[in-house]
Design a protein that fits this description.
Protein name: Thiol-disulfide isomerase or thioredoxin
CATH topology of one domain: Glutaredoxin
CATH architecture of one domain: 3-Layer(aba) Sandwich
Number of strands: 44
Strand content: 35-45%
CATH class of one domain: Alpha Beta
Helix content: under 10%
Keywords: Isomerase
Number of helices: 5
Pfam family, one: Thioredoxin_8
GO molecular function: isomerase activity
Shape: globular
Largest sheet: 10 strands, mixed
Distance between the termini: 8 Å
Strand order of the largest sheet: 1-4-3-2-5-6-44-36-41-39
Amino acid sequence: MRAPELTGRGWLNTGGADVELAELRGKVVLLDFWTFCCINCLHVLDELRPIEEEFADVLVTIGVHSPKFTHEADPEALRAAVERYEVHHPVLDDPELGTWQQYAVRAWPTLVLVDPEGYVVHVAAGEGHAEALRRVIREVIAEHEAKGTLHRGDGPYVPPPAPETVLRFPAKAIRTPNGTILVADSGRHSLAELDETGEHLVRRIGSGVRGREDGLAPAFSEPNGLALLPPEVAERVGYDVVVADTVNHLLRGVRLADGRVSTVAGTGNQWRDGETDGPGLEVDLTSPWDVVWWPPAGGVVVAMAGNHTIGLFDPLSGNVSRFAGTTVEGLRDGAAEQAFFAQTSGLAADPERLWLADSETSALRWIAKGDNGFTVHTAVGEGLFDFGHRDGPAKQALLQHPLGLALLPDGSVAICDTYNGAIRRYDPVTDEVSTLATDVAEPSGAVVVGGELVVVASAAHRLERPVPPGLSARLVAGAAQQVRRLPTGIAPGEIDLVVVFTPPPGEKLDERYGPPTRLEITASPPELLVEGSGSGTGLSRRLVIAEGIPSGVLHVVAQAASCDVDAEHPVCRLARQDWGVPVRVEQSGLRRLPLVMGGMDEQAE
């Protein structure tokens, strides 16, 4: 089909110019539909970097930012995110999801490839499609070079001026044994140690350039969480702090005495499938976002944002394991191994509870140990598509994409309510939520220093003390909000859900070790699905949708393994995508629901 024109509020990374598809005839155009809250979208940004470099003279990548949360529709917040994540291509600001709807996109992230004559030739949802894109791009280049319709040269990207600040998009902070404040300076790919005021730099650990080197000249890639080990454990393992080195998919150990860094868990490869338990240096991790020492679990708990699970790292044995979660994105309480999480990004621990900021469900949750093991509970939060700024009883309170937590001296929990720009307080005794401060620029972490809350104001590039001692909390009677993404109308009764996946050129489905595909489907509320829930090996499923339930969410997880066709030692790859599809049940709704993971939906054509 002919690619629809790109329309939105404005453009970033173009020097102020608008970009039209007609101006890009002769180029291969890759549209990346993303939103900056989405961990899978951030993975794709990193997957695309080498592709953009490899095909720099023929490929134009355009990010189409179609926001999920209200805060993401703020043009200044988007501008900050483009810098934060080092997006080096033009970005279309699509706050009303107009271009999203023109391209019939159903999930973040989605990639759409447009050929030099302006036709859509490939669609891929989710992550893990880098090699497939390479092969399709090479085919498109060869075809249009032969036709004479390929034009080489620079694209429309214009880099913005580089800013100068001591910290750049800091993420989390902890207090060290000598009273300083150690900050994960994510935008500078390093750790910054500040004095107790949080204003003066004592030293920097890390080169400041994206990398993964160990030793006394280390490098990080967008570090986030920090966990201080108990002294007796630190003495035995030889390091004091565990760092969630997010984009490197690693845990790093830091010796504070001299700043020496070592890799303590992860391979550097992103987990996509397979083992999650074993020797730490042999198991893949995926975007560890925060870490905290919690004795009831017996080690360092890891918010594994990349696959919506909670991990556990034992510094003494060096082993990692899955502590909670199934990899399905959602909000479900109960036994830890069966619970659903959604991009957990903040942790805090007291002797009895592990507190979690579950960002994509805008939820505050906690884990406790009981007679039958660990169980998961939700204090605040309603699901993937409901958020807001509302105080009062926890059952009706609302947050918006919180990223950080801290325990206050009175036993309550301070919540960095990131996309509301607020510091909130949850009191476990009264089960109520209140607001301590507002107008904080994307608070993402906090630490108590001398009884005072020090907040990492990430988008302001500094530490702040927005809650003066003795300040009383106040109540905000804000309105509830929902994601503006339109629900998909589906019919009650029998419908066919089909995940479309076509192996890229030169590959075939890998059937050497059994079925090469997997499909898992659940629903919120569970009663929405009369039949069809659970796991199976095919990429299509007959569902029976309940009468009388007006709306809900279908949670779909799909995987497909493919390998090189003509190779003595074929390379195999795994494509994976999680969909949370909001649906509206209506008699005129779809009886075939296609979700494109890779390729084109021929029936739609």
